[in-house]
Amino acid sequence: MHNVLLSPVLERAFRVAATYHQSQTRKGSDLPYIVHPCAVMSILQSAGIQDGEILSAALLHDVVEDTECELSDLNHQFPASVVRWVDQTSEDKDDELGEPRSWILRKREHLAHAEHADWQARAIILADKLHNLTSMLFDLEEGDNIWERFNAPPSSVLWYNSSMIAAAGHGDQPALQLLQSSGEELIDQLIEQSGQKPINPEES
Q: Are 92 and 109 in contact, with CB atoms under 8 Å apart?
């Protein structure tokens, strides 16, 4: 456990995340992408998680999935636990030939992996979903067509987020329970405000 206000590991994570995400923006907006990992870290802190290595992995959770960064780039800069949690929170978006994998295949695989991930990685996944869902609700209330941002219909997007919250939320850690219940509340709000319902695309 590394309970600190700001450790060298966490400072390095801020810098690495900001560098790799510097040219990116949030989907459907002009907001710098770094807002998202910082929000995920903040959510974990609000849930009572203060461990600097968990918070560092939260800041880095998208660098392998969404930038040119590879796990090997993190190995010599961060503790093994941080690298492991980043790996466990990352999707494989491309196949072995570098071609994009289908949305449903990626999500099914990520769901399966998340269920057996370390609780620290699952907490990061839940915080990630909480920020994404909160952003969706905010933008929906602003009148934005949030569904055009995704490579899947609204029912499938809701199904995936709801399923991931269930898959990642098991365990007796208070933080996981708080994150899971908050995610379930956000799903209910999004269903109510959007008029959409979660539907498994393989059963529809």
A: yes
Q: pLDDT band at 92, cuts 50/70/90?
A: confident
Task: State mean pLDDT over 169-177.
Answer: 95
Domain boundaries, the chain: 8-194
Residues of the chain by 3-state class (helix, strand, coil), percent to 5? 65, 5, 35
The token pair that represents 100 in the structure block:
């994009």
Calpha distance 162→157 (Å, rounded): 9
d(CA 32, CA 128): 16
Active-site residue, 65 included:
yes
Concerning whether 118 is annotated as a catalytic residue, the answer is: no
Given the residues 65, 91, 144, 184, select the one marked as catalytic.
65
Residues 126/165, Cβ–Cβ less than 8 Å: yes
User: 116: how many CB neighbours lie within 10 A of its CB?
Assistant: 10
pLDDT in tens, 58-88: 999 999 999 999 999 999 999 999 999 999 9
CATH code linked to domain 8-194? 1.10.3210.10
Report the distance separating Cα 162 and Cα 107, nearest Å: 12
Q: What is the pTM of this model?
A: 0.94
Given the residues 66, 73, 87, 144, the one annotated as active site = 66
Interior angle at CA 109, CA 108 and CA 111, nearest 5: 65
Q: SS3 string of 142-164?
A: CCCCHHHHCCCCHHHHHHHHHHH
